[in-house]
Write a structure and sequence with these properties.
By secondary structure, the chain is an alpha+beta fold. The protein is built from four helices and four strands, in the order H-E-H-E-H-H-E-E. The protein has helices spanning 12-23, 46-54, 71-83, 93-110; strands at 35-38, 58-61, 135-140, 145-150. The strands form two sheets. A two-stranded parallel ribbon has the order 1-2. A two-stranded antiparallel sheet has the order 3-4. The protein is globular, with a radius of gyration of 19 Å. 6% of the residues are buried.
Length: 153
């Protein structure tokens, strides 16, 4: 999950710039042979699609009226709404950015995945003897997100 940027009024120029930012060699998160799955919203204009294709990223346009085909994105939106956004009152775009950043870190690095044997997908490096250390609880966003880990040796 990556949030490129936010604007209340996306237009063709803005979307093309987001495509450029996402595919930049130095710090973009899209690399050749990856996919961008998008719906039929007019925001995904021809300039956006051409910029993405020029970087070697494959575009997959979803059929009309098919929310179930984009299940990963829909599930992420549902998760962030239920766990965080519906329980906080945010004042401004800066607060929203911070909450989404914190949730993204939690989602990718601290949340156990039951479909993967209850393991972390991106675990932190472990030192020898970590199995005997006590389990500690940590939290993010004032306790809205909680996770457990073993302290380092």
């Amino acid at each position: 999950m990556h949030i490129a940027d936010m604007t209340p009024h996306p237009n063709e120029t803005w979307m093309t710039q987001m495509a450029r930012n996402s595919t930049m060699v130095e710090w973009g998160f899209l690399t050749p042979d990856q996919y961008v799955i998008h719906d039929r919203d007019t925001k995904f204009c021809s300039a956006f699609r051409e910029t993405i294709k020029a970087a070697g990223v494959r575009l997959v346009k979803l059929p009309a009226r098919s929310p179930n085909l984009n299940a990963y994105a829909e599930r992420w939106v549902r998760s962030v709404r239920e766990k965080v956004l519906s329980r906080l009152i945010l004042f401004g775009e800066g607060a929203l950015r911070q909450v989404l950043k914190e949730y993204g870190t939690h989602y990718h690095q601290e949340r156990h995945y039951q479909g993967k044997g209850n393991e972390l997908l991106r675990p932190r490096p472990r030192k020898e003897g970590w199995e005997t250390n006590p389990i500690c609880s940590r939290e993010r966003l004032g306790g809205r997100l909680r996770y457990y880990h073993r302290e380092a040796a």
